[in-house]
Automatic annotation (TrEMBL):
UniProt-listed Pfam families: TetR_N (PF00440)
UniProt cross-references to Gene3D superfamilies, sorted A to Z: Tetracycline Repressor, domain 2 (1.10.357.10)
Annotated HTH tetR-type domain residues: 9-69
Regions recorded as binding DNA: 32-51
Keywords: DNA-binding, Transcription, Transcription regulation
Superkingdom of the source species: Bacteria
Cross-referenced PANTHER family: HTH-TYPE TRANSCRIPTIONAL REGULATOR BETI, HTH-TYPE TRANSCRIPTIONAL REGULATOR RUTR
Protein's recorded name: TetR family transcriptional regulator
InterPro entries: Homeodomain-like_sf, HTH-type_TetR-like_transc_reg, HTH_TetR
């Protein structure tokens, strides 16, 4: 006899972890949504309800980041932040969370996947986050980089630093790696400048 009634709760975070494991073993492009549904023991319909696109499995939790950024930006208003303020106000809370070994291991897995499939960095929620952060920057003076360019550069530099940390950063926290990379970019004594 088949059980009737409400199906058991599905753990979306666990499904995303299963997908990350599959992506790590087989590559993002080679894994199908059917493969993920089977490995996670959920129906294809449930999988698509929770994760409408395969890339959403990689970015599980990004909506929480977006919501935090929106709240923080609303608190700050047009604060006139500079690059360091953006790092302090928006990135540091998440980078500090990576001091937890379990969170760091999951982040490293995601970052390695992003390094192998950089098209994943084009996720629309990342663009939403970028647009919200832009509203907190100081307006640019003539001859200076416009705020959208500053924010996109900070995000790109942060991701690059984190991808390096995921591969080589043992003995260094994600926050330390990010600060070191952004300081190096800001060093105007660079002979290439």
């Amino acid at each position: 006899m088949t059980k009737r009634g409400r199906p058991p709760e599905t753990d979306a975070r666990q499904i995303a972890r299963v997908a990350l494991g599959l992506f790590a073993r087989h590559g993002f492009d080679r894994v199908t949504m059917d493969d993920i549904a089977e490995a996670a023991s959920v129906s294809r319909r449930t999988l698509f309800r929770l994760f409408p696109a395969k890339s959403d499995l990689v970015w599980d939790g990004l909506d929480d980041v977006r919501d935090f950024v929106r709240r923080r930006a609303a608190e700050l208003g047009p604060a006139g932040l500079r690059a360091g303020g953006v790092l302090r106000e928006f990135a540091e809370p998440f980078l500090r969370a990576l001091e937890d070994p379990e969170a760091a291991a999951l982040a490293r897995q995601r970052l390695r996947l992003l390094a192998a499939a950089p098209a994943l960095l084009a996720h629309p929620t990342l663009r939403e986050i970028e647009a919200v952060i832009v509203t907190t920057l100081a307006p640019s003076e003539p001859g200076q980089a416009p705020p959208p360019l500053v924010v996109r550069t900070l995000i790109a530099g942060t991701f690059a630093a984190l991808m390096w940390w995921a591969e080589h950063g043992d003995g260094m926290s994600a926050l330390e790696a990010t600060r070191a990379a952004l300081r190096a970019l800001a060093d105007d004594r660079d002979p290439c400048a």
